[in-house]
Structure formats: C-alpha cells, structure tokens
Amino acid sequence: MALRSPAKTHWGLTPMFDSGRCILLAMNRLRGVLALMFVCAVVSLPSAQRPQIGAGLRDYVKVDAPVVALTHVRVIDGTGAAASDDQTIVIRDDKISEIGSAARVAVPAGATVIDLSGRSVIPGLVMVHEHLYYPTGPQVYGQLGQSFTRLYLAGGVTTMRTGGNVNGFMDINLKRLIETGQQPGPAIDATAPYLNGPNSFLQMYSLKDADDAKRQVAYWAGAGATSFKAYMNITRAQLGAAVAEAHVRGLKVTGHLCSVTYGEAADLGIDNLEHGFMASTDFVADKQPDVCPGQGRGQQAVAAIDENGEPFKALVRKLIDRKVTLTSTLTVFETFTPGRPLPPGLDVLAPQLKEQFERNHARTAQSKQSNYIALFPKGMSLERAFVKAGGQLIAGTDPTGGGGVVPGFSNQRQIELLVEAGFTPLEAIKIATLNGATYLGRESAIGSIAVGKQADLVVVNGNPALSIADVRNVETVFRQGIGYDPAKLIESVKGRVGLW
Ligand SMILES: [Zn+2]
Questions:
Q1: pLDDT reading at 35 higher than 80
Q2: Residue 140: beta bridge partners?
C-alpha cells in the first residue's frame, strides 16, 4: 500500500500508522515523544479501523459515522441460516460489533440510528467472475474499469475477483486506488492477463511454452496480480507450470478451459473452473490432448450428459476430491439463450452499446435451433448436481459474450438465476457471499454477517428470503462500515458505460 500524506485523509493520522511506523516516527522526530507514545498506544489496539474516504468517494457516501445502529432489520446472514426478523446491528468503524434482537441490543449512546423496518440486510456480495472490460466492437473489449467498479458497488458487490483481464495493469491499479480510499468500488482480487496458448484475440498474449507460463505468473504476481486465469488454448504443460508457480506464491488459478479437460486440470492442481460445466470438453468422444475441439462441441456433449450416469458422477467426484471449486456464471449464458427476458441494467449503457445488445437479443430470440435452449437448463441442473454431491459452488456474472451482462445489475440477476436453478434463496445468497469469501480465503473477515466481521452489508427493501427479486431493491451498500448510495453511483455513470 502506498503511504499517502495523512493530512489529506479525512480521518487524520490514526488509520495510517501501525505500531512499527509509530516507533520509527518517535525515533525520527524528537518532538512530543510522550504525545506520540500515547497516539501509538491508542492506534496500536487491534480494534476496528476507520476506512479512508478520499475526495473521490465523498459524492457517493450516504452513511459515515464511527458508530451506526441499524435497527428493526431482517438479517439474512449469508451462512444459509434462516432469516432473523427485527434485529439490531451495531457497526463500529469498519466492523460489526453487535447483532441481536432489537429488544435486547441497546443502541450505543451517540450512534447514528437507521430504522430499517421493512428492510433486510444480506452480506456484501463476493463475486468471482467479474471483469473490468466489456465487448464494444469487432474483437475489441473496451476497458470500463472506472464505470464498472461503481456499478459493482452499487449492485451490492463489496468484494470481487476479476476473472481475467485484457488490459494489463488496470485491474491491479484500480485495486490499489480502491484499497486506499481514492475511488469507490469493491475490494478486488486482481487477476493477471489471461494465460492462453496460441489464440487470435487482439488483446491477449499467446504463451510460448511451460517456461513462458511460469515467467508470466512470476512477472504478474510481482506486478501485483493476486490471481490467475487459464484460457481455452492453454496446454497441460503450460497450465501445470502456471499452477505450480502460482501456488508457490499462495495464489490461486482458475480456468475457462477447452484444450484441457476439467479432469486433467483437476489433476494438475487447478483451484477453480469457470462457467459451471459449460466449458467442459471431458465428454467429447474424440477429444485430442491439448487441443480445443471448439466450445460448441464441448457444449453439445455437455447437453447430452446423463447427470446420473457414471462418467458425470466420476468427474464430479474427482473435482470434489481435488477440492476444485466451480463458478456459476448463468448470467452470460442467459444472454445467449432464446426466449429469455432482456437483462437488467441496459439503461446505463452508452446508447450505441444498448442498441447493439438489443439487436443481439432480438437475433437470439429468432434462433430456434440454438443449443442453448437445452443447454441453459442443463447447465443449471448440473450445477445443482455438483452441489448436491458436496461440491463448492461460487458465483460470478462474466460481462462478456455479446454484451448485456451489466455489472451490479447482473450480480443480482445471477442470484435470481441460482434460485431458478433450484437453490433456495438462502442457499443462493450463501453461494454469492460466504462461498466466494471462502474460496478467496477471506471467510474469517467477510462473506457473512457476524460479530467481528467487516461491516460489508447490503440493505434491500423487502425480504429476499421469500422473494429473491428483492435483492434488486438495494438502498444502501456498506463497505467497511461506510454506507454508499447506489443511486448516486449509478447516476454518475448512466448513459456513459462504454466510454470509460
Ligand atoms: Zn469471463
């Protein structure tokens, strides 16, 4: 983290200094040693910290107080447990300090009290197949990190992993700007540029060999990337080298695969596979090693899988044995499927991109022979089968394809689609929160609503435990105890998403 001048921060000295820096300061500056020792003693307590609110955040902040009490609220805690009505949540600085029935929990003196009768809180969403780019033109992905980070936060996403980037440094730089309170957005697990074999993407590198894969991982980890994504034409040797190099650094690798099967990737130690079973080529009869037979061929085979048959069950067992997590990205597949409604959030797009997607959607509606008519529900039921067998499912949205997957709005849609797939609303919310946090190794700090955890909370009007569509009614998004106004975040980018 870059050390910024404390004078510029709203919260003054205290959040900037840990005890080590205090000692240095005391030694370096022989002024007011006693006073400094006092300051150091105070700030060294392992208690909550006020997050920084830089000038770039001010316009979007709705709740900003050291102690906040959310009263008379329904709590859906993200663990899958039943909702609790009429609760009080006390937030101190960036953490949850108390939760209990409104009748029992006393509101601390001086707290900012927000009566949330009729509202529910769910944990901030932790979504893991996000991108800071979007298809804007022929073979071109526009880099929309500035608008997308605001939209993700507005939609209730407080932590996200980018699932591959086609830019280089933007994900990493935005991660830092958000961490240091200079820009609004979710915490970002920043994924390096894709690790792919020979490919024709204009904005993507082609790995030369396994050593090259190793070098790429080392380079991008050094540059600040915190996760990796293998792509459709990577070889087994390249993937194996990349996984080994990432694991040495404690970093994880996911993949949208094709040339390498799910079973092979599990054997190579991959941590996560994207798109449910939609990118599996394990069931293509004449699959050649290290060669992508085409995503369409893989998907035809997936559409024909018997989910109770031994081949599928054996793959599921292997993924579970090797602790491979699966990411559901139903949102992007919905946009490929005829007969589905227009996705939410199109109005924020720049007019040309909105029209472009609406034309795609109309064309999709006409393709009566589309694979996706059978594949989309099949993909849903395979994800259910994976979870039923004991597999760990996490969720993301994937704003790529032919467009129409709009950050924030699509994260809420993804939760609705999990419910359509057969998960209960409470299970769907857990997949989109605690499961994601667990995958990221951050479940002790985020992902559910519990005392001591970071105050990352989404306030929604209604009761998503009964009606999952209520996850769309976001009124306030708390990240690290600061409440953001989703309407202001959305308004700040509306009609311009596509430009920046
Ligand atoms: Zn993706």
A1: no
A2: 137
Strand 84-92 vs strand 67-75: parallel, antiparallel, or unpaired?
Answer: antiparallel
Structure tokens at 82: 């039943």
Distance between Cα 86 and ligand 1 center (Å): 39
| Separation of CA 255 and ligand 1 centre (Å) | 9
Contact (Cβ atoms closer than 8 angstroms) between residue 229 and residue 265: no
Interval between CA 291 and ligand 1 midpoint (Å)? 20
Taking the CA atoms of 114, 120, 126 and 131 in sequence, report the sign of the dihedral they define.
Answer: negative
CA angle 2, 46, 438 (to 5 degrees): 75
Between the CA of 194 and the centroid of ligand 1 the distance, in Å, is 10
Which pTM was predicted? 0.90
Query: 261 vs 123, 209, 227, 281, CA distance in Å?
Result: 34, 18, 20, 5
Q: What phi and psi values does residue 100 have, to the nearest 5 degrees? A: 175, 180
With a cut of 70, say whether residue 46 has pLDDT above it: no
CA of 215 to the centre of ligand 1 (A): 23
Tell me, in angstroms, the distance from the centre of ligand 1 to residue 357's CA.
Answer: 17
pLDDT in tens, 10-28: 222 222 323 333 333 334 4
Rounded average pLDDT over 189-196 = 98
In this prediction, residue 497 carries a pLDDT of: 98
Give the pLDDT of residue 49.
74
